[in-house]
Design brief:
It is built from 8 helices and 12 strands. It has helices at 13-22, 34-41, 98-103, 124-133, 135-156, 161-179, 193-200, 204-216; strands at residues 44-49, 54-56, 64-70, 73-78, 84-90, 95-96, 110-113, 117-123, 181-183, 186-190, 220-223, 226-229. It has 2 domains: 29-153, Jelly Rolls; 158-229, Arc Repressor Mutant, subunit A (Orthogonal Bundle), CATH 1.10.10. The strands form 3 sheets. Strands 1-8-3-6 form a 4-stranded antiparallel β-sheet.
């Protein structure tokens, strides 16, 4: 690591840009090694779901880790005040319910098929048995969960502007890959600031400040009910 001497210092926007290009896609199946993927494939069960089918209910422990093979999953929850909370769609190659299956914990969201989809189910009991017998798989899953925990704790840090801007930009990057429209200046995401504020858990005035700073960094371009996520320059470019 080249930045050990800067530990404890707030991240600059240059640091944030670097993090966003290096941070793993923390729900991607291909983060696991070939060995782990092959071992999991041995316990996977393929199931087909139709549009609107409820795959997993919020507040209940999940019976399996879900890997999207085809189509998309929609995650939603209801806050204590009755507001609907939406998470970006889970697309092909992405996993859901890992922490719930491993820890026997309630899953926070309701997972619904967004159109017909095919999922690979890694049943919780079979997954835990595999982890007990295969140290490589257990270690890789533990590391993946640790990275998820680190990411969630980082999102909780609201003491300086960069942390919130990081969350906003990370969410926009994810939305751009899921439902963005490529254009000459980047990928356009059709979303209002109100919707984006609800998605990242920020107030609209604070979000507006973050967006203006991201635009000044030339990471995004603001439009009417849309945001263009600009292409990052390649290393050395």
């Amino acid at each position: 690591m080249h930045d050990d001497d800067r530990s404890g210092q707030p991240l600059s926007f240059t640091d944030t840009r670097w993090l966003l290009t290096k941070l793993p896609r923390l729900d991607a199946f291909d983060l696991l090694s070939d060995h782990a993927q092959a071992a999991l494939a041995g316990i996977g069960l393929r199931r087909h779901w139709h549009d609107g089918d409820v795959v997993q209910r919020a507040g209940e422990p999940t019976g399996a880790v879900l890997l999207v093979e085809r189509g998309r999953l929609r995650l939603s929850a209801t806050s204590a005040s009755g507001a609907e909370i939406l998470w970006p769609y889970i697309g092909p190659g992405k996993m859901a319910c890992l922490y719930s299956a491993v820890g026997g914990l309630p899953f926070h969201y309701c997972a619904t098929a967004a159109g017909d989809c095919t999922l690979i189910h890694f049943e919780a009991g079979a997954l835990l048995a595999l982890m007990e017998g295969d140290g490589i798989v257990a270690t890789e899953i533990a590391r993946l969960l640790a990275k998820r925990s680190w990411n969630l704790m980082d999102w909780r840090i609201e003491g300086h502007q960069t942390s919130v801007a990081y969350r906003v930009y990370a969410a926009l990057q994810y939305l751009a890959t899921q439902r963005g429209a490529p254009g000459p200046q980047g990928t356009e995401v059709r979303i209002s600031q109100r919707e984006l504020a609800a998605l990242v858990g920020s107030s609209r005035p604070y979000l507006s400040t973050c967006l203006q700073q991201l635009q000044e960094e030339r990471l995004i371009r603001l439009g009417y009910r849309s945001i263009v996520v600009c292409e990052l320059p390649t290393e050395g470019g």
